[in-house]
Amino acid sequence: MSIEAAMSRISQIQSMLAAGIVPQPVQQPQATQTSFSSQLATAQAATMAPASAAAAAAAPASAAAPTTSELPAGTPYAAEITVAAKAHGLDPALLAGLVKQESGFKPDAGSPAGARGLTQLMPATAAGLGVTNVLDPVQNLNGGAKYLKQQLDAFKGDTALALAAYNAGPGAVQRFGGIPPYAETQNYVRIVQQNAASFRSPAASSTPPATPYSSSNAPSEI
Fold it and tell me: What b/e sequence results for 12-31 when a residue is b if at least 16 CB atoms lie within 10 Å of its CB, and e otherwise?
């Protein structure tokens, strides 16, 4: 309070006393009281909020639910094959049947002609499909799935013709107007379809086991 205000207040009080009036004390606004427990809860919430936000931000992306395989238990690369097949609109069993024949599920499989990986991609084909590392299972599976889907689209969904094109090349299928008269290609189409049937219903399938993969009988050179 300034000196002028204080002197004015004293003069006012003196006048009131002279008139017989008892001055009332100046009422000060009552401060809002906050309990200790409320203050503590507020402080704790402020402390915990940044920590919770930081923990959420640090949560790994892998916390998402894993992809469920549609193939029988024990199938090598079952989840990866399922993901690649679904990404390209394929039956996972068909892609698995192709992989079994092409490489025997060996990611480092190779043929004398230079085809490599689970789906046996040739270097030029792999490059055209965007595969930079043919020995990487995920890249190779996606490349093979994409190529097989291209053949299915080209031959109007005919699985046998698409498989023949995968093995002998689409030009050969077009030239002969169907599955080329190559024993290797005809055997390939039959075996891959048998493999696919076994992956769809392994318990009910009565088809004989397919010829196991070996580098000497690797059929495809795409």
Answer: eeeeeeeeeeeeeeeeeeee
- Main-chain phi, psi angles of 198, to 5 degrees: -70, -30
Mapped onto helix, strand or coil, the DSSP state of residue 116 is strand
Q: What is the rounded CA–CA span in Å between residue 22 and residue 174? A: 117
Closest CA to 163 of 140, 138, 186, 197: 186
Structure tokens at 62: 């892998």
pLDDT average, residue stretch 55-62: 41
Higher pLDDT, 211 or 192: 192
- Residue 74 DSSP symbol: T
Note the pTM of the prediction, 2 decimals: 0.65
The two three-digit tokens of residue 201, written as one number? 């219903």
| Matching residue, tokens 């392994």 | 202
Categorize the per-residue pLDDT at 69 as very low, low, confident or very high, splitting at 50, 70 and 90: confident
User: 116 - beta bridge partners?
Assistant: 110, 121
Unique residue bearing structure tokens 């809002």: 32
Question: How large is the angle between the packed helices 137-154 and 78-87, nearest 10 degrees?
Answer: 40
Q: Please indicate whether residue 102 is annotated as part of the active site.
A: yes
213: left (phi > 0), else alpha (psi -120 to 50), else beta?
beta
**Selected catalytic residue, list 4, 70, 80, 102:** 102
